[in-house]
């Protein structure tokens, strides 16, 4: 009987008894937070992990213990440079991986930014859409041939996709007033839609794709947020929950936040998660747009799983990056 996991499950609980020897897994964003924990948990169970980071010096420090745990369990961790906000760097990384020709069992698109000021990538894209979606879109598609049959693509999304559907008419906020949370929502909806479209293209070859929401976790992703505002928001949420007779909201630990990523990576049945949105170590239910969802609610908006929306995003993304996949 399959084990049941939930919101409080940790990476080590999810991977208990799992031997990943012989598996090669690529993880972006291994210089902090969820990326480091994802790499640690997989490598400590025998996987060969290739971790990408913009700041390699920072990543080396952050993953020093990961390297030690990996060695003792027969796993490994190798670092490679990648700046998702610069397509030259993305293509350089892809070319290096293709030149080596070593296949991967899973690609985990973990890196990202959240609620940034109005900034642009090196290629002129709005920072959150450009980094969270377009950088991964180019990298994953360029190295798709390296993903083994039976492999997976796991995109880190967020409940923040509920803030906004993608806007393919004005993705760079050239005509729309910039709002950091709307921009974040667009990028996270794009992460889910990319998984939907990638899954449709590759499932015939036995490769599946899914999006995962880690839950509320305090990491460096919060660097642009006011800690006082975060505290007040949690306090207000808990007052409302108390009035409804419900348990208070609690932030997840980093091992709990990374648990859904590793669950979707190597534990969940591929056909169960393919083309879906997952949270708290299970597949999320679709919630209609007219239903109010709070910070503590589960569920995915239908627009983030809409195949037509996914295909339109794919086409627009190709136009923006100047490549067809």
Would you kindly provide a written description of the structure presented here, covering whatever features stand out?
- The structure is a single chain.
- With 325 residues, this protein is an alpha/beta fold.
- It has one domain (11-225, 253-321): Rossmann fold, CATH 3.40.50.720.
- It has 12 helices and 10 strands.
- It has helices at 11-14, 33-43, 56-62, 64-73, 87-100, 127-142, 180-202, 227-243, 254-257, 259-267, 270-273, 307-321, and strands spanning 24-28, 48-53, 76-81, 104-109, 147-156, 208-213, 277-279, 282-283, 286-287, 300-301.
- The protein has an 8-stranded mixed beta sheet with strand order 3-2-1-4-5-6-7-8, sandwiched between helices.
- It is globular, with a radius of gyration of 19 Å.
- The chain starts with 10 loop residues before the first helix and ends with a helix.
Mean pLDDT: 92
C-alpha end-to-end distance: 40 Å
How many β-strand runs?
A: 10
So what's the overall shape?
globular
Give a quick precis of the structure.
The chain is an alpha/beta fold.
Topology, element by element:
Blueprint: H1 11-14, E1 24-28, H2 33-43, E2 48-53, H3 56-62, H4 64-73, E3 76-81, H5 87-100, E4 104-109, H6 127-142, E5 147-156, H7 180-202, E6 208-213, H8 227-243, H9 254-257, H10 259-267, H11 270-273, E7 277-279, E8 282-283, E9 286-287, E10 300-301, H12 307-321
């Amino acid at each position: 009987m399959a084990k049941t996991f939930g919101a409080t499950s940790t990476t080590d609980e999810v991977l208990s008894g799992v031997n990943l020897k012989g598996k090669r897994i690529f993880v972006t964003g291994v210089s902090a937070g969820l990326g480091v924990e994802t790499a640690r948990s997989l490598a400590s169970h025998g996987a060969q992990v290739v971790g990408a980071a913009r700041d390699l010096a920072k990543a080396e420090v952050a993953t020093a213990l990961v390297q030690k745990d990996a060695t003792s369990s027969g796993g490994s961790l190798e670092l490679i440079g990648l700046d998702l906000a610069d397509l030259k760097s993305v293509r350089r990384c892809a070319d290096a991986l293709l030149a080596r020709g070593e296949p991967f069992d899973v690609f985990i698109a973990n890196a990202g930014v959240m609620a940034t000021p109005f900034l642009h990538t090196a290629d002129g894209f709005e920072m959150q859409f450009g980094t969270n979606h377009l950088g991964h879109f180019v990298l994953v598609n360029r190295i798709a041939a390296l993903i083994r049959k039976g492999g997976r693509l796991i995109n880190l999304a967020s409940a923040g996709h509920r803030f906004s559907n993608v806007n393919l008419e004005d993705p760079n906020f050239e005509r729309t007033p910039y709002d950091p949370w709307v921009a974040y929502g667009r990028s996270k909806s794009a992460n889910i839609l990319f998984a939907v479209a990638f899954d449709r293209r590759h499932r015939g070859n036995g490769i599946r794709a899914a999006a995962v929401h880690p839950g509320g976790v305090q990491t460096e992703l919060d660097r642009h947020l006011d800690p006082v505002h975060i505290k007040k928001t949690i306090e207000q949420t808990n007052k409302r929950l108390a009035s409804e007779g419900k348990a208070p909201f609690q932030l997840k630990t980093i091992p709990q936040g990374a648990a859904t990523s590793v669950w979707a990576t190597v534990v969940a049945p591929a056909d169960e998660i393919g083309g879906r949105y997952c949270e708290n170590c299970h597949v999320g239910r679709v919630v209609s747009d007219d239903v109010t969802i709070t910070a503590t609610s589960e569920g995915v908006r239908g627009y983030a799983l809409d195949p037509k929306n996914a295909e339109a995003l794919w086409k627009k993304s190709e136009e923006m990056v100047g490549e067809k996949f």
